[in-house]
Amino acid sequence: MKPRKCGLCKGRLQKGKTEFTVKVEKTILSIKDVPAYVCQECGEAYFTPRISRKIDKVMKEFHEGRLLAYPIAAGEIRLEA
Ligand SMILES: [Zn+2]
User: Which domains are delineated in the chain?
Assistant: First the structure.
């Protein structure tokens, strides 16, 4: 199963790679070179179930401290309404 159209803007999806960033507890984990279908209009990335499972696995291993990750700088800010 692979996505054909963007669920947000109906844009065309093209096979490519993206960077997936997620917050695990108090740490930001950034996974690079994730194969994805990327919307050519808005940049939204879609993952196949196989890739989603891989991401889940990486997040789990990272959370359990079983993964050696390169530290990167991160900033957190509140958006003033
Ligand atoms: Zn889109």
Answer: 13-63 (3.10.20.860)
Q: How far is the CA of 44 from the centre of ligand 1 (A)?
A: 5
CA of 13 to the centre of ligand 1 (A): 8
69-to-1, 31, 37, 59 alpha-carbon distances in Å: 31, 9, 25, 11
CA of 14 to the centre of ligand 1 (A): 11
Q: Which residues are 46's β-sheet partners?
A: 37
- Give the three-state DSSP class for 39: strand
How many whole angstroms from 61 Cα to the centroid of ligand 1? 31
pLDDT digits (tens, 9 = 90+) for 24-47: 888 889 999 999 999 999 999 999
